[in-house]
Write a structure and sequence with these properties.
- This protein has 13 helices and no strands.
- It has 338 residues and is an all-alpha fold.
- The chain has one domain.
- The N terminus and C terminus are likely disordered.
């Protein structure tokens, strides 16, 4: 029996360029942008972590009725519809440079392929194994930005903590490992490209409002529309059963909201405030959050090893932030003041 068939109660998974953008009274207003910019990056990580683990729990329930590729398509397309209605990201494309359009195209392809590969992997391997493999790429990104002994120690603590939580198991499913490692590579690209668009500010020369922290979300929305176009030939046929079952369709929409809208938006808001290496390191807190959610929502009691892993991850993230991020965040906010 495949792991996805036994996971019904489980939880876990998944100076810049300046271009013009027209202001909109309900989208990216200066007041909203200032309120968002005032929030600490850790706020966005908490939101992202919670919804990263609600989404896969909905997807696992849906696997019994809709195939893996169908669930992935529902996730991508429902998220694209939300971004289209909320942000209308196509208004942005005409004002981007050729290089920036290529970045959005690349991110859209990465989002489509990453979501397909993630679900194909968890359909064959334990979710903890896929999550641990995915974190290997994050370790590389965090290590690239490690320049002090203190940050190196923070990285080591986080890695050991995640290893204690995920507890990788070798299983006889080679294709599953191929999908898992391919997903790992694409998740690295998601972080790199996502960080790039989060720090590509878009302003309107005819407006005195300046760049908005929501600009990265507009670009994310455009990339999600591209992802929907890329995914449709591969997933719409598999998703057909859900289109005639309202309850299944609602589950698919819930997967999209919890897996590709709320956490990706939170990621953008965090990426705009943090260096890429720090963002990658802080992603280590996701397995710890999964353990907490498992306790509160599903009644899964953590083992002493789980508690040790949580403690190590929190220690690693806190150690890195105390050294580099507080002063940087302060300077970043100060630079934004008129």
């Amino acid at each position: 029996m495949r792991p996805s068939e036994t996971l019904r109660g489980a939880i876990g998974t998944a100076g810049p360029p300046v271009v013009a953008a027209a202001p909109h009274p309900a989208r990216g207003s200066p007041g909203l942008g200032r309120r968002i910019a005032a929030l600490p990056p850790s706020t966005f990580f908490v939101v992202s972590a919670i919804f990263h683990y609600l989404g896969p729990s909905f997807a696992v329930l849906l696997f019994a009725h809709v195939s893996v590729l169908g669930v992935a398509w529902l996730r991508i397309v429902s998220a694209a519809v939300v971004f289209a209605v909320w942000r209308r990201p196509w208004r942005l494309v005409a004002r981007l440079t050729g290089r920036q359009r290529w970045v959005l195209l690349a991110l859209g392809v990465v989002l489509a392929a990453m979501n397909f590969l993630f679900y194909l992997a968890i359909d064959r391997l334990p979710l903890s194994t896929v999550g641990a493999i995915e974190f290997l790429g994050i370790v590389i990104l965090a290590a690239v930005g490690t320049r002090t002994r203190r940050n190196l120690l923070a990285l080591v603590l986080a890695v050991v903590g995640v290893a204690a939580l995920t507890n990788i198991r070798i299983v006889h499913e080679p294709l599953g490992f191929v999908f898992a490692f391919a997903n790992c590579a694409l998740f690295m690209l998601y972080v790199v490209l996502g960080h790039k668009i989060a720090n590509t500010k878009i302003t309107d020369a005819s407006s005195d409002t300046g760049a908005s922290p929501l600009n990265g979300i507009d670009q994310l929305g455009a990339a999600m529309l591209i992802a929907a176009l890329v995914a449709t030939p591969f997933g719409i046929g598999s998703a057909a059963p859900a289109l005639v079952h309202p309850s299944w369709l609602l589950w698919g929409i819930a997967v999209g909201l919890c897996s590709s809208v709320i956490p990706y938006v939170a990621d953008q808001l965090a990426m705009a405030r943090l260096p890429r290496a720090t963002f990658a390191l802080m992603l280590a807190i996701l397995p710890a959050t999964a353990t907490v959610i498992g306790l509160l929502v599903l009644g899964q009691i953590p083992t002493p090893q789980d508690l040790l892993g949580i403690a190590l991850v929190i220690a690693g993230v806190a150690l890195h932030q105390d050294r580099d991020e507080s002063p940087r965040a302060g300077r970043s906010v100060a630079r934004r003041k008129p």
